[in-house]
Design goal:
The complex is a heterodimer of chains A (268) and B (252). With 268 residues, chain A is of the alpha/beta class. Chain A contains 7 helices and 10 strands. Chain B is mainly α. The chains are: A alpha/beta (268), B mainly alpha (252). Chains A and B meet through strand 6 and helix 2 of A and helix 7 and helix 8 of B.
């Protein structure tokens, strides 16, 4: 029942995704996306808003159906949501009627672990995200940053093979975001899970990732995948290094081109 | 604190004072509006003889049984309507026709089917309350963020478990609002059924007093119903505060 998480990669082949808005015609959100996320790597999906990067993440999560193409992990084809793929959302999506502890116990309980062992495990992850002392608080009583720590702990406590993060720090203020980025890297260096991290913040992507896939505006395609690798060494001054700023600038130019492309009116 | 309570009671005190004064000044015939003191004396007598507790217990039993029936059927059905298209298509037209119907109009049918004792009144009460409960559960579940259900699924919840683990608690604020409307409704319809069918219960006692031209008994009955209703509504509000202690409204 409690098989430990095994790192696994993700292989996406020829994935396209259409959706129909409530009132309107079919929109193509993803077009022929092929992407390999290496086992144990931190992989960022970067692109302008509306480029389908969240849609891609939701497909990997199994929340949206795979229509064309395939998504495969080491456990097989992705068809449904499952506890092998944990997810952290921008709006935290904690259960507001459960305390921090109860939220974190939820996934642990679903794995069949109960009683003192479950509590110890939950406490370990609460301590890991520095929420010690807030076990009995309801999410509504916490700041945004603390809610996101709780959401991260809840996901980590279920010990998924793959961590899917959908602009997790997008709703936080700049200082909190910076601290959360550092702590996430610190945790990831211990767990070495495969992470897919959606963001529109170029510096965040470069700071956190082994690899960065830049996506085009709608319909979403993978434009280029670059390697970064600043995340491997715990260097707090990495933001000031010339090769770091150079990399950010280079990728920013690529994203910028995508935004300009999307803005340009279609030829008549 | 005492000042606030006094302020809240002042409306009733004015009403009661006006009632007693109208009698003392001979403005109204005692048969049309008996003196407050006579009604109060009857209340005391009803409490002392135990008649009040017997009638209140019978009325509350049938009201709460019908209300429970409405909850057990209405909450799952309301959630299913919003989460399963097929159920929605099938049940929604029935609900939208049944909701605005005066439920009490079905009393003759329920008497025919379920007899003239407790069962027909319980079904009647449940029927009158169930539509409000369905509508509240439906509306409450519709607003559930998809990220919440996705989180539960990626933590290992099955689709069936989502109803208990996510839908029900997420819809609880609106469900409780619906229950707070449905409970007095159930009590109203219960008393009305008793008044139409006679027998025991607060409504039955009132109709009995009416038959004997006992206007003091009728007024005492009204006060007793108001008392029971007021207590039931207050307990329901307390239950809401307890169940929603996680909700921002509880902080206010």
């Amino acid at each position: 029942m409690t098989d430990p998480s095994v790192p696994t990669g993700i292989v996406i082949t020829g994935l396209s995704h259409d959706y129909t808005p409530r009132a309107g015609t079919r929109v193509r959100a993803l077009e022929d996306v092929s992407l390999t996320v290496a086992t144990g790597s931190f992989h960022a999906l970067l692109g302008p808003s509306g480029c389908g990067k969240s849609t891609l993440l939701y497909c990997i999560g199994g929340f949206l159906p795979v229509q064309t193409g395939s998504i495969r992990t080491d456990r097989g084809l992705v068809t449904d949501p499952g506890p092998d793929r944990g997810v952290v959302f921008q709006n935290f999506a904690l259960f507001p009627w459960k305390t921090v502890l109860q939220n974190i116990l939820y996934g642990i309980g679903k794995r069949g672990i109960r009683g003192a062992e479950a509590r110890d495990r939950a406490q370990h992850f609460i301590d890991l995200v520095h929420l010690t002392g807030f076990e009995a608080s309801f999410p509504g009583q916490l700041s945004g940053g603390m809610q996101q720590r709780a959401a991260l702990a809840r996901t980590l406590a279920a010990e998924p093979d793959i961590l899917l993060m959908d602009e997790p720090f997008g709703a936080l203020d700049a200082q909190t975001r910076r601290i959360m980025q550092e702590e996430l890297l610190g945790i990831w260096r211990q767990t070495r899970q495969t992470v897919v991290f959606v963001t529109h913040d170029v510096a965040e992507a470069v700071y956190l990732s082994d690899a960065i896939s830049v996506m085009s505006a709608r319909p979403g395609r993978i434009r280029r995948t670059l390697s970064a690798g600043f995340n491997r060494a715990a260097d707090p001054a990495v933001f000031k290094r010339p090769d770091f700023t150079e990399q950010v600038e280079l990728i920013w130019q690529m994203v910028r081109a995508e935004v300009d492309d999307a803005r340009r009116p279609a030829p008549a | 604190m005492i000042g606030r309570i006094a302020l809240r009671c002042s409306a009733f005190l004015v009403l009661l004072a006006g009632w007693e004064a109208a009698n003392r000044l001979g403005l109204i015939r005692p048969f049309l509006l008996p003196p407050l003191t006579a009604v109060a004396a009857r209340l005391v007598a009803d409490v002392a003889s135990g008649a009040f507790f017997l009638n209140a217990a019978v009325t509350l039993y049938r009201t709460l049984a019908g209300f429970a029936l409405a909850c057990v059927i209405g909450i799952p059905l309301g959630i299913l309507i919003s989460r399963r298209k097929l159920v929605g298509w099938f049940v929604e037209p029935i609900v939208s026709v049944g909701f605005p119907m005066p439920a009490i109009a079905f009393l003759p049918i329920f008497m025919l089917w379920f007899g003239v004792f407790d069962l027909s009144k319980i079904v009647m009460t449940g029927f009158s309350a169930v539509f409000t409960v369905i509508a509240a559960a439906d509306a409450g579940t519709r607003g559930v963020e998809r990220q919440l259900t996705w989180s539960a699924q990626s933590l290992g919840a099955t689709r069936a478990e989502l109803f208990r683990d996510v839908m029900l608690p997420a819809a609880m604020p609106q469900i409780l609002t619906g229950l707070q409307v449905a409970l007095p409704l159930a009590l109203i319809v219960e008393v009305a059924s008793e008044m139409l069918m006679g027998g025991t219960g607060l409504g039955g006692m009132m109709v009995n007093a009416e038959n004997y031209a006992d206007s003091v008994g009728v007024y005492a009955g009204i006060v007793e119903i108001a008392l029971v209703g007021g207590i039931a509504v207050a307990l329901m509000a307390r239950l809401r505060r307890h169940l929603l202690r996680w909700h921002p409204e509880a902080a206010g």
